[in-house]
Structure formats: C-alpha cells, structure tokens
Amino acid sequence: MSHLIEEVRKQQPLIHNITNQVVMNFTANGLYAVGAAPVMAHAKEEVEEMARIASAVVLNIGTLTKEQVDAMILAGKSANQAGVPVVLDPVGVGATTFRTDSANRILQEVKVTCIRGNAGEIANLAGVDAQVRGVEGSSDIDVQKLAKLAFETLQIPLAITGEKDVVVDQGAQVSISNGHPLLTKVTGAGCLLSAVIAAFISVSDHVTEAMSDAISYYNVAAEKAAEKHAYPGSFQVAFLDQLFEVDGAAISKKKRINRSL
Ligand code: ATP
Ligand code: TZP
Ligand code: MG
Ligand code: MG
C-alpha cells in the first residue's frame, strides 16, 4: 500500500495558513518540499473565500492579535461550512491569558478537525496545570496520560509532540518515537509539522492515521537530515531536502510506532 506522502505529492493540496510571523517563510518552503501548495492569507476581507477553496486550513496563534483571532474564526467557520478540515496549533497556550482565552474562543466557535501542540500547550488547553515558557512547554509531563485526559476533555483528535509523540482519539492511542533533538533548535519545527498534518489529513478519510503518518514521515526526514548535518543551520536546509526526498519505503524502514488502546 502506498504511503500518504505519495498521495500528497500527487494531489498537491492547497493549505491555507493563518500563522505566525516567525514561521511563515519556513512553513511555505516546507509545504512546497512536502509536495503541497501553501498560501498565507490573513485579512478578514478574504479569509472566508480562501478557506472555502483550500484543501485544509491551519490556525496558528503564535503571534496573535485580536484582529487575527477574529479572522481565524471567520476562516474556520467558512471551512466548516465547505467541509474543509481545520488544524489548530495552540502556540504558547498557558503562557499568557490572551493566548489561552483566544484558543478557547476558537474551539468554541470553530469545529476543529485536530490539534497539534507540545505537552504544555495541550495540558493548558485541557485545563491541566503545566508550565509554558514563551512558546516552549515543560518536559516532565506523562504524555500518554495527558493525551488520554486531553482527548476526554476536548473530544478532538490531537497530537502531543516532543521527544516522543502521541496521537490520540476515541479508543486509540499511537506513540511515535522518531525525530531528532535538532528539531528543537529550528524555529517553526512544530508549526510546520501542524501544516504538514493539514496536508496529510486533506488527502485521507482517517484523521488520526493521517496525523501519525505525517509525524512518522516528518521525523524520519529529520533523522535522515541529522545523519548528514549536526548543526542547526545546515540541518534546517538538509531537513527541507529530506522532506522532498523521503518516500514510503524509507518511512517503513525507519518508523517506530506503538499502538495501544
Ligand atoms: P516547542 O516550542 O516546545 O519546541 P513545538 O511546537 O516546536 O514545541 P515540538 O514538540 O518541538 O513542537 O515538535 C516539533 C517536532 O520536533 C516534532 O516532529 C517532534 O517529534 C520533534 N521533536 C521535538 N523534540 C524532540 C526530541 N527531543 N527528539 C526528537 N524529536 C523531537
Ligand atoms: N514566538 C512566537 S511564535 C514562534 C516564536 C518563537 C514560533 C514557534 O514555533 P514552534 O514551531 O512552536 O517552535
Ligand atoms: Mg520546537
Ligand atoms: Mg509550537
């Protein structure tokens, strides 16, 4: 059976990103390397139209303003009406009240297809006390327990990423242990992953399978890039190259996945 990455490359889904100012260029280049078509459109005057014609929409609150959150809600509602999947990246939730309130507002008004965040962000979204410093979460959380609890609270398929990644939905939990610490030295490694997840879910009928396939693919690409380069700058470039190069066979060979109830 062919891997979903081959389907993304065939269909070249249009991914509408309302994302932060730090990662816009990296996200666009990353999506091109994956084989998707990126578009960044933030103005409230156009987001509904763009979301409607997109294959998936990414809402990322990394450098949020009140106006941008309003635009995200317009885009999300329009995507919902058109049956377009919506991915939420709750960057920095828990660090400030504005971020937490804005993410909760989005979740109240938009039917979000899935969420991807680090453990601290997901914990805060689910009402569990955890430390978030800026955009980085704390690492001393039991992610499998958190994933179960967060799904019970939010009732939305979600991925918690970090050294190990966990994808959870009703009755299923997948744990993925690929990746490389150099990803933590590249800003936007999480944000781009959320956009890649959007590309994968747009070409699949199974949200959590698409999420875990996207994470395996992404983290195998990171491992292959780290085999060639040990410093963040050259790693970042090599990583984009590997997102372009890695295929289903390479993923099957390297992926480390554990499924549990
Ligand atoms: P943070 O701001 O806390 O760094 P983030 O939003 O950037 O969070 P991460 O959790 O860092 O997102 O995940 C981004 C990617 O990096 C994922 O593919 C994840 O699996 C990978 N990753 C993060 N930390 C590690 C690590 N220590 N070892 C291997 N892979 C990692
Ligand atoms: N500050 C606000 S958004 C942002 C920073 C550094 C980028 C966060 O990217 P990621 O993918 O969460 O590391
Ligand atoms: Mg990171
Ligand atoms: Mg992040």
Question: By helix and strand content, what is the structural category?
Answer: alpha/beta
Taken from the alpha-carbon principal axes, the silhouette is globular
- Small molecules (ligands, ions, cofactors) in the structure: adenosine-5'-triphosphate, 4-methyl-5-hydroxyethylthiazole phosphate, magnesium ion
Number of strands: 11
Number of domains: 1
Low-confidence segments, given as residue ranges, are none
Order of helices and strands: HEHEHEHEHEHEEHEEEHHHHE
> Quaternary arrangement of the chains shown?
single chain
Instruction: Please report the distance between the alpha carbons of the first and last residues.
Output: 24 Å
Main sheet characteristics:
9 strands, mixed
Compute the gyration radius: what is it? 17 Å
Q: Could you tell me the mean pLDDT?
A: 96
The CATH superfamily turns out to be Ribokinase
Family: Belongs to the Thz kinase family.
InterPro entries: Hyethyz_kinase, Ribokinase-like
Protein name: Hydroxyethylthiazole kinase
Cofactor: Mg(2+)
